[in-house]
Structure formats: structure tokens, C-alpha cells
Amino acid sequence: MKKILLSALLMGAALSLSAQSKYDKYYVDLPIEIEHVQEVKFPATSVNIAQFGAVPDGKTDCSEAFAAAIKELSDKGGGHVIVPRGVWKTGPITLKSNIDLHLSKGATILFSENRELYVQKGNPRDGSQKCIAFIYASKCENVGITGKGVIDGQGFIWRPIKEKKVVRDGGLKDVWDEALALGGTLKPDDKTYRIWYPFNLNPELGIPNIAATPEAQSNMRPTLVSIIDSKNVVVEGVTIRNSPKLHLVPSRIQNLIIENVTIDCPWWAQNGDAIDPGNVQVALIAGCKVNCGDDGLCMKGGAGQKGVDAGPQRDFLICNDTVYRAHGGFVIGSEYSGGMQRIIVKDCVFDGTDTGCRFKSAPGRGGWCEDIYCINIVMKNIREADFFFESGYADRAAGGRGATDNDDKSKFFPEWSNITFRNITCVNSKKAVNMTGLKGLPVHDILFDGISWYGTREGMSIDNAEKITFQNCTMSPQRENTIKRSKDLKWNGKPLE
Fold first, then answer.
1. First and final CA of the chain: distance in angstroms?
2. What contacts 190, CB < 8 A, 6 or more positions away?
3. Across all residues in the chain, what is the average pLDDT?
4. Under a CB-based contact definition with an 8 Å cutoff, are residues 245 and 217 in contact?
5. Which of 90, 221, 231, 245 has the smallest number of CB atoms closer than 10 Å to its CB?
6. Which helix (H) or strand (E) holds 14?
7. Predicted confidence (pLDDT) per residue in 50-104, tens digit
8. Which whole-number Å values give the CA distances from 164 to 168, 195, 217, 265, 375, in the listed order?
């Protein structure tokens, strides 16, 4: 009887161990329970793109080799498409179910500067065109991009460049001169500064226009990696750099893993967001490093009714990540109509970002928050505010003079609430908090617990907010605050003044 009982116990223990995931190590000491990601597995079969005529010289177009390798492997039930050491130039790559695009150490996928390769058929109603993402997957199950290699989008020949950003603010006249040497088109940004567009480039470059105007061509800039309406997606180990626009955009995904990924592009890159998951259910972003030209780790939830229909962004764990240059380290918005639910950011470092934790939206694209936690974070050298809330954010294109958002602004208002910041150290920032709610819908029910500010140059600016609580917080040296149209603000048990 004892032997039978012992065997049963051992069998139960073995089953318990087998059910564990290699990602469970991240799900410790969490403030709330959230659903865990599950490992994405692929068949052991593999093919090498060199088998299909690909040449690693950085010049030969390997588009057909990538497509043939993916098709053959897909026909066999899936597996790993191996990209070996070398520089492999290609046009767009479309992934399929059960395919892992695996970049060996020393491998670079270099996307072609021939912009015509990415143009899709125009909209028959208005003749408008768009470009497909460089790496794309839709309605797939089990998709991977893994390895130690590099994915390079050659974004310089796609992106507009603002003279006042790179020359006046950045002191990078060499970047501006490099752009002018390519030809292109200059347009005024204001009375003093200009915008360079990679439109009408020098003919010897062999890079034709793909639109009638500089602005229209800029609006066609593709995302580097876009995976949509899919299940079980893993991006692991790779470096993704120099996108024409956004870098890694997984949208409407169930079970997403982004681990030990590096995103790298110039800080002045227009719309150079790093990781922008949207309406994703159950995700892990761990051990990533980011340098980018816009938001770093940015949560999206769709605008208006489409965002609602796609469901909330929920059960997210973001941990052990480092964000250097970016508009924001951890960001929600600007569109999040589907809502944000059970999102935990922990053990991260934001160093040199414009803002640390950035919450931005506007009527027509706002949503709701539930159980958002930012804990055990270090923020250093933040250029603007450590904590930023904006309920009237206007999204502007390069050269634009107003909001580009055309959504219905009579509903879908941003409600910033139910957010906890805990055990955060802020060193050498410009401002502690910049918070602006809407008239009739203030920012509310926000808890700052155990926040330490050292050397911040300005205090707090709070407008249209209520039930904002600071407890166990210190600010050295103490700074003055500006409070408008707000109530029930407490600093360590006393009214915040």
C-alpha cells in the first residue's frame, strides 16, 4: 500500500513538473495573479535558405529563396527556416503557421532599398496605396522569429528628418548633411527650420518614388515586423533595427512572447516606436533592450469601436527590460479603446527617455484601465516628466499642424484610473509628475507608493485630477507643485499643496 501511494505521489510530481513552463521564472512576486504565457513549439524539421539559391553578399535579391524555403517547410508541416551567417538582401517576407524564422549568429536580413517591392494594390475607392510590412504574418498559429542575428530595415531612405530635431536640438549636422547628399525634397517645418523627405532622391541611387507627393510617400512607410490576428507568437534573441516606421507590432494576438530582443534605431527617427502590441491577450516582454525614435514599450488598444471589438489588452508581464532613448519607457496609448487589464511592469530601467511612464490619449481613442501596476523600477536622466498623463493628446504627422485622428470624439474618452506605481526610484529628472485630465473626466484613483525622487528640477503639475494618493514618498530636495481644478490629493497622509 505504501509503495502504491509513493508511486502515485511521484507520478503526480512528475506530471506537475512537466506542466511547468520555462517562462514561469518570470511570474514571481507579482502584485496580482495573471495568466501565464505558454511555450511556442515547432517541428524539428529545418531548411537553409542557401539551399534555395540565396547568396549572402548583401547585394543579390534573395526574396524568391526566402519564399521557396518557407513554402517547402510549410508543405512539410512546419519547422525552422535557417538564415546562416552572412548578409541576405531581400524584399518582404511572409511567414506561415508553424514556421520559425531562425537567424544564426552573424546573420543579417537586409531589406532592399527598392521601395517598389513593398507596394500593395491601391484602394479601388480612392486609389490610395500602402506598403506591406517587411516581415508579415496574418491569421497564423505558431509563428517565430528567433536566433542571434539582425533584421535591418534601412530606414534612412524612408523616413523624413526634421532639421530642428537633428541640428538644433541634437547637434547632428552630419546626419542632416548625409540626408542632403542623397538629394531628396526640402519643405518648411516652421519659419526657420525644414523637413527633409527622401522623395526625388538622386537618380544614380536607383530608388524611385512610390507616391505623387513627399507627404503621401511618407504615409506609406511600412512597419518592419507586423504579425496580426494570430495565436502563439514568439520573438526571441534577435536585433531589430532601422525600421522605416514602427519596429515590432503584434496586433490581436493570443499568447505572445518577446524575450531578449534588442530594438535599435536613431533617437531622431520619425515614428520609430520599438514594441507596440495592440489588443493582445496574454503576453510576456522580458529582458529586452530598446533605443528608439518614439515610444519604447507601448501598449495599444485600438481606436473607437474597432478597438472595443478587438477586446482588451490583458494579462501582460513586462519585466527586466531596459529602455534608453525613447519618448516613453512604458507607455499606454494614444489609442486604447479596447481597454487595459492586468498589466504588470516590474524590475525595469528607463535611462534617458523623454518620459518614464507615459499615459496619453484623447477623445475618440480613449478607453479604461484595470489593475495596472508599475513596480520596482529605476528611472534615470528623464528629460521631461517621470510620470506623464495627458487626456487631450494630439497625434501629429511630420510636417502636420494638427491632429491626424479622425475618430468620433463624442465618445471613447480616456479614463486614467486604477493604476499603482510602487517602489520606484527617480534620479535627475526634469519634473516629477505632469498630469492633465479632461473637464468632467479627471485622472483619478492613482496610487504612488514608495516613490523616491532625487535631484528632480521641478515638482508636480496636476490639472483636472482627483483621488491621487502619494504614500511613503520622498522628494529631495522638495519642490513646489502647481495644482489646478483638482481635489482629494494626498501626500503622505496630508493634502498635497
1. 72
2. 164
3. 93
4. no
5. 231
6. helix 2-19
7. 999 999 999 999 999 999 999 999 999 999 999 999 999 999 999 999 999 999 9
8. 5, 8, 21, 19, 36
Looking up cell 514602427, which residue turns up?
246
Query: Which helix (H) or strand (E) element contains residue 460?
Result: strand 458-463
* Amino acid code (one letter) for 120: Q
- CA quadruple 162, 166, 172, 175: dihedral positive or negative? negative
Provide the pLDDT confidence category of residue 16 given band limits of 50, 70 and 90.
Answer: very low
| Tens digits of residue pLDDT in 129-181 | 899 999 999 999 999 999 999 999 999 999 999 999 999 999 999 999 999 99
3-state SS, residue 36: coil
Give the Cα separation of 430 and 435 in Å (integer): 14
Give CATH 2.160.20.10 domain extents, the chain: 46-155+223-495
Short-list 311, 339, 118, CA closest to 223: 118
Closest CA to 178 of 167, 188, 189: 167
In this structure, the number of other CB atoms found within 10 A of the CB of residue 146 comes to 20
CA dihedral sign, ordered 147, 374, 292, 143: positive
Task: List the CATH code of the domain at 46-155+223-495.
Answer: 2.160.20.10
Q: Are 164 and 192 in contact (CB under 8 A)?
A: yes
All three cell numbers of 494, joined, read 496630508
Least confident of 189-198, 371-380, 392-401, 480-489: 392-401
Rounded to two decimals, the pTM is: 0.94
Residue 483, C-alpha cell as written in the block: 495644482
CA distance 80 to 76: 11
DSSP, collapsed to helix, strand or coil, labels residue 31 as coil
How would residue 20 be classed by pLDDT, with cut points 50, 70 and 90? confident
CA angle 101, 105, 108 (to 5 degrees): 65
Residue 333 near residue 361 (C-beta atoms within 8 A) = yes
Upper half-sphere CA count for residue 361 (Cβ side, 13 Å): 37
Q: Where does 62-203 show beta strands of DSSP type E?
A: 79-83, 86-90, 93-94, 99-103, 107-111, 135-138, 141-147, 150-152, 161-162, 183-188, 194-201
Residue type at position 445: D
Q: Which of 189, 280, 296 is nearest to 233 (CA)?
A: 280
Average pLDDT over residues 246-273: 98
